[in-house]
Design brief:
Length: 404
């Protein structure tokens, strides 16, 4: 237990963290990779170059400091991060390394302002926070390994089929190389892949949402080929999957993970909002609801740049034949016959008027897509007065980006 004095010192540093948080975490990663280069195999280097991980860590540290006297407040954040840590393969022995490095970074950035009292308080606080993460993650490891068809670490899968869904998105059907059963999952969850891309010095780990209903003898992921824009390089792993991986090749994945899950504990109407490849977890949800014979109202609103990059359209048209399922398409820049799509709703972007017109007022809203899309949807739902417990989303980045 942390003493009252220690908590008071930590709380007094919150304004400093708010001001210098990203400088501290930037310094943290510099020290970490200099002293422990083997950990480069654990981190997404693209996110490192774009500063996403620095921002995410700064926000996590800030949140922990701000709620140090009641860490239960941040348990939802802990759970989300712990899911990703379990999927990536983070282990308890790595936490002391992170703690030592974080303290060095705080001292380097704050200089003389980082008094011995502050450093000692932060050492104690980090230990308490690390214990929470380790406890949650160990339970997740146990659950992943002990569930029917489950496993610990990474397991080898064979690509049994590779299907082009649109000009940008390709699906990969994966069966276990050992021929044994595979773990089920809740629609909305993802697989994490460990990939050695030729020419890259470090292993790459990436999360890809499962895009089919559970209960099949295979997993399906659907991946967008990430083309570089604004001077950024092409996606290392997505390009490798699209251009190099073929039927019969093998990939390594950890057991399904993630806290973005379809909630079947109530009978509220469901609204699924997706932008681009963000539709992958929502397709899993839609297909699952159909296969289970769910009769509640389901509204699916998908946004794409234009028709050629719109995946799973045929599947959604088939689902829309059910009386409780309505399907609506928004094309940012419709081309050719796009506006003649039988489910075409509007050109441009999804907006409040469209959502209010199509969505039942008492629905639970699930959404996923690129950051600008998600920021717009998140703000719109709040402006509509939708309670937080009816807003669910998947976002592989700092949640704070949605509310800035």
């Amino acid at each position: 237990m942390l003493s009252t004095e220690t908590k008071s010192i930590i709380l007094s540093t919150v304004p400093v963290l708010e001001k210098h948080g990203e400088a501290i975490t930037g310094r943290f990663y510099h020290i970490l990779f200099s002293e422990h280069p083997e950990l480069l195999n654990l981190f997404n280097q693209t996110n490192q170059r774009q500063g996403k991980q620095q921002t995410a860590l700064a926000n996590a540290v800030y949140a922990a400091a701000a709620h140090i006297d009641n860490l239960s407040v941040i348990l939802p954040v802990v759970q989300r991060i712990a899911e990703k840590h379990r999927a990536l393969g983070v282990t308890p022995d790595q936490y002391p390394i992170v703690g030592e490095t974080l303290l060095k970074a705080i001292k380097d950035v704050l200089g003389d302002a980082a008094t011995p009292e502050i450093m000692d308080a932060w050492a104690q606080a980090y230990g308490a926070i690390a214990d929470v993460f380790i406890s949650v993650e160990q339970e997740l490891y146990r659950e992943a390994a002990e569930q029917p068809g489950g496993w610990r670490g990474f397991r080898e899968f064979i690509v049994r089929d590779k299907v082009k869904e649109s000009e940008a998105i390709t699906s990969f059907y994966l069966e276990p190389a050992d021929g044994k059963a595979i773990a089920s999952y809740t629609p909305g969850q993802y697989l994490t892949f460990l990939v050695q891309v030729p020419g890259q010095p470090y292993l790459q780990r990436r999360h890809y949402s499962l895009s089919d209903a559970p209960g099949k003898p295979y997993y399906r992921i659907s991946v967008k080929r990430e083309a570089g824009i604004n001077g950024l390089p092409d996606g290392i792993v997505s390009t490798y999957l699209h251009d190099t991986v073929q039927t019969g090749d093998k990939l390594q994945a950890s057991a399904p993970a993630g806290d973005f899950k379809l909630d079947t504990t109530n009978n509220r109407p469901i609204v699924l909002l997706s932008g681009g490849v963000g539709m992958t977890p929502l397709i899993s949800m839609a297909q699952t609801l159909a296969e289970r014979g769910d009769t509640r109202p389901i509204v699916y609103i998908h946004s794409a740049i234009e028709g050629s990059v719109h995946a799973f359209d045929r599947q959604l048209r088939e689902l829309a034949q059910q009386p409780n399922f309505s399907y609506h398409v928004v094309y940012e820049r419709p081309q050719g016959e796009d506006e003649r799509h039988p489910h075409f709703a509007k050109s441009g972007f999804v907006d409040r008027d469209l959502i209010e017109r199509l969505a039942p007022a008492d629905a639970t809203f699930y959404f996923c897509g690129p950051t600008p899309y998600m920021r717009a949807v998140y703000k719109t739902l709040h402006a509509m007065g939708i309670e937080e417990d009816r807003i669910r989303f998947e976002f592989f980045g700092p949640t704070s980006q949605l509310v800035d």
